[in-house]
Amino acid sequence: MPGAKEFYGKVFGWTFTDLPTPDGRSYSQAFLGQDLVAVIAPQNPLQEGAGPRGKWNIYLAATDAEEVAEDAAHAGGKLEFGPEQVADTGVLAFVAPSGGGTTGIWQAGTHTGSHRFNEPGALAWAELLTPEPQAAVAFFQQLFGYEVTEYPQDDGGSYSTLLVDGDEVAGVVPAEEGEEASWQVYFGSADLLKAVETAVAAGGEVLVEPEAHPEEGSLATIQDPQGGVLSLIQLPPPN
Hints:
This protein is of the alpha+beta class.
């Protein structure tokens, strides 16, 4: 965990506050200025069984995590962990739709999630890559009542977005043949080339190179020294 803090502190300028976990370990809240934007934590029970490589998790907010956990099987998916009370910070569970794609469920207590979105150094987007996209969309619709927008693709497939109060909050994408279901996270960058250069200097690896002259919406994908994969997206300059 110290290595991850050092890496993301250099790439995004995050600062950290360390807090204890119920099992005697610790986790770190990551801040941009005074605003909480992410958490770096020891592997959860699901990740410990999969090996030592780091991984980004996506958590969907729930008003009742226990109800979501109970309904997961009825919605065509499964409950993988929890629900479990995490001190006074909230209630945690992990579910997965048909086809896979472990998804965190978070019922907020004192920890209400990221305070920034779609800004440099903050989460800008998340999408689930899955071999069963329509089943996944139906799963999340049934559990959370999301509205859905479908964007037809040139290959005959469809890119689905999940909406809350008319705002798109996540995507569901058909996975490539043989690709396991997983969430891809995107963090904003004001200078994509500089962010990638900083990531490499800090020990990261570039998996998808940025364009030579990035424009708004341009992407690069990196892997941190702990194995966590994330994409960076070029955001427009501030007004």
